[in-house]
Amino acid sequence: MNNRLGKKVEPYIWLLPSIVLMAIFLVYPIFIVFKLSFSEISKSGVVTGFAGLQNYKDAIALPAFKTVMKNTIWWVIAVVGLSTLFGFIIAMVMNQKFVGRKAARAIIVFPWATSLVIQASVWNYIIKYEYGNLNNILLNLGVIKQAINWRSSYQVEFIWEIWVGIFVTIPFVTFCVLSGLQSIDGSLYEAAEIDGATFWDKLFRVTIPLIKPSLTVSTVLNIIYVFNSFPIIYTMTKGAPANQTDTLVTYLYMLNFYDRKKGPATALSVIGFMILCICAGIYMVGVMRKEDEQ
């Protein structure tokens, strides 16, 4: 009896250090943020009383709230969607045998391995109007006759930020999908070819169904990483002009540390956390249902 009880308890003993660390560094800070979102907070960060839902009302009433939420939605959908598409295509190519495949894989991982601040700074320099590399290359090649202002409006700047987000995220998706592709037994493709399957048949009936777990992991993690991404937007524009290129994370940072509106900023962080949990949960439930149906 004691032996059986020991076997049941043993896994939890091994998990206990991880559980304790998660409770200290993850659960407790989340609890504190939730608590602060319902508190009156002075500009110096001192809690002065209970505010109820006032911080949430003030956050939603902020002039830039709608713009920031719209930017955040576009940012997440565009970066996650396009990086998943491009990453999947590149992974399919990297899974083929060709000369220099190892070198190509090493090159692909560079954007992901490099600091986001460095990546954003490099792209800031590339698209400079006066001495940017992009204009210099196009002028030298004769593609354009005069330098182009690649940052002519805040919409264009936001598109560039999205591009940088896609560029640095593609390697992560590529290697997640590549790990799934390499686990597929080649005999499945041989059997499909014998049955007369085309490339598209093999793609949609063999490849995609078998790499769904890898795609699920990469997509959920991507949603979390991209939603919380701060360095790219802050480094390139700092949300300028007038919060037109801000996302929720950069906006609440500016709201807290520059405008000293700590209550609404804390409420915004809770709103972002809830949105993230709901989106990730819906995606996970949808994927699991499809797998159960199959």
SSE arrangement:
Elements: H1 2-37, E1 39-41, E2 47-50, H2 54-61, H3 65-94, H4 101-113, H5 116-126, H6 133-141, H7 154-182, H8 186-194, H9 199-210, H10 212-227, H11 231-236, H12 248-257, H13 262-293
Antiparallel strand pairs: 1-2
If you average the pLDDT, what whole number results?
89
Largest sheet: 2 strands, antiparallel
Going by helix content, strand content and strand pairing, the class is mainly alpha
State the total count of DSSP E strands.
2
Number of helices: 13
Helix content: over 70%
What is the CA–CA distance across the termini? 41 Å
Strand content: under 5%
Quaternary state of the chains:
single chain
Which spans of ≥5 residues are poorly predicted at pLDDT below 50? Answer: none
Radius of gyration: 24 Å
**Which term fits the overall shape?**
flat
Numbering strands along the chain, what is their spatial order in the largest sheet?
A: 1-2
In N-to-C order, the SSE pattern is HEEHHHHHHHHHHHH
A few lines on this structure:
The chain has 294 residues and is an all-alpha fold.
Describe this structure in words.
The protein is an all-alpha fold and 294 residues long. It has 13 helices and two strands. The protein has a two-stranded antiparallel ribbon. Strand 1 and strand 2 form a beta hairpin. Helix 3 packs antiparallel against helix 10. The longest helix has 36 residues, at 2-37. It is flat, with a radius of gyration of 24 Å. The model has no long low-confidence stretch (mean pLDDT 89).
